[in-house]
Amino acid sequence: MMKTFHAILITSIVLFLSAHSVYAGDPQIHIDRGNKYLINDRPFAAVEEFKLAIEKGAHDAILFRNLSIILYDLGFPDEAIDYMNRALSISPYANSFQMELGIIYLAKADYLKAREQFMEVLQRNPGFSNAYYYIGESFYRTKEYDMAWMFAETAKQLKHKSSSLIHRLKNVSESPDIQIWDKSGESLLIRQILVDTRSRADELVKRIHEGELFEDVANEMDKTLNSVGGFLGHFKQSELHPKISKALSQRKVFSDPVIVETELGFHIVQRILPFHFESWKQTLADYRKSKDVKVVSAQAPPPDKSSDNAAPFVESKITKNVTLVNNKPGTPPEPAAVKKPAPARTTSKKKYLVFSGAFSEEKHAIQRNKKLRSIGLASYIHQQQDKKGMIHMVIAGKFDSLREAQEAGKDISSHGLDYFISR
């Protein structure tokens, strides 16, 4: 069961305050107040305090990232994008920030910008399975199913649990018979986790075999923002330790990681595949040509700019454990006012609405909305006045077909929540 947003925040406070020093000054006063508001489940008040801290000089990548995630969780994706970009301006090689920015764009249905973020991550680490998965998700949304298959299958080879995307692809298309990872050669692209003892190496390999991602385990060993999931780079066999070169040259791309002992310690190494999107496109074009498939090239449909039409099946991995930060003063950015939620649109091409609760108290609607977003749905709150007062209706998403709406409903129900579908 996924931890609640509230519980994770409390855990983060304890972990963060024990590891970071506090600096004095006006910004810290607002940060402290914001932390207290978060503990008491008052995120809107926390946002105001954190923005005041930034206005008065707090300038830190973690603070900007945290504020971005809170704003995204509250349903303000445009502001969330702005603050995540500020975080990246300070830490431009933070893969976690880049991934989260891509997921926010994906939730906004801005698929081209989402792909830009994920592909930039893959340029730094071509073994990042989540990036492959979300690019595949974006191609699924633009109905470019062959390309979606290639990314989904690659994520699967990297042990990503991409069954949701593959299941949906099976309902609309057949997987192209392309296995770009089935190759070997003299040059090696590798990733590594280096530990001191065999028992520690065995423990980490066991975790990977049981389902944890290699890059997540590697990042656990490297706490820096710029961690690249153990990726080392591209090597000729002669450039590697002879034992490592021998072990990997005998294995195919994406084979399970192996343990190699050298004088430096115990290396958990795996051979992976370089990522070159242009090469992927050419491979797909050659495959289509060989099958004599006539494909009419078409641009992807323009992105829907409204957050309430976001992709309902995005399994959002945006980490909710917002680390409460104590920042050193720097150049204050321009303060941004908290925007009021945009009114729900009354016209839409989507035919089916999935509702998950109507509440007289707004706080209950916000809690339900948070829960739906935590399981990957692009939900939002629609307010409607009736004789008894304001009703806050939580809409899990809008869908083109009844089948899609029913699938979303099953997902909601599997988490113990109620729903109903309306046209």
State the CATH superfamily name of the largest domain. Tetratricopeptide repeat domain
Count of DSSP strands: 8
**Silhouette:** globular
Instruction: Report, as a whole number of angstroms, the end-to-end distance.
Output: 32 Å
Spatial strand order of the main sheet? 2-1-4-3
Percentage of residues in helical conformation = 40-55%
Contiguous runs where pLDDT drops below 50 for at least 5 residues? 1-24, 293-301, 303-317, 326-349
- List the secondary-structure elements in sequence, H or E: HHHHHHHHHHEHHEHEEHEHEEHE
Describe this structure in words.
By secondary structure, this protein is of the alpha+beta class. It folds into three domains: 5-172, Serine Threonine Protein Phosphatase 5, Tetratricopeptide repeat (Alpha Horseshoe), CATH 1.25.40; 187-271, Chitinase A, domain 3 (Roll); 341-422, Sporulation related repeat (Alpha-Beta Plaits, 2-Layer Sandwich). Helix content is 47%, strand content 13%. The chain is built from 16 helices and eight strands. It has a four-stranded antiparallel beta sheet with strand order 2-1-4-3, with helices on both faces. Strands 6-7-5-8 form a four-stranded antiparallel beta sheet. Helix 3 runs antiparallel to helix 4 (61-74), helix 5 (77-90) packs antiparallel against helix 6 and helix 7 (111-124) packs antiparallel against helix 8. The longest helix has 14 residues, at 26-39. The radius of gyration is 23 Å and the shape is globular. The two termini are 32 Å apart. 40% of the residues are buried. Residues 1-24, 293-301, 303-317 and 326-349 have low confidence and may be disordered.
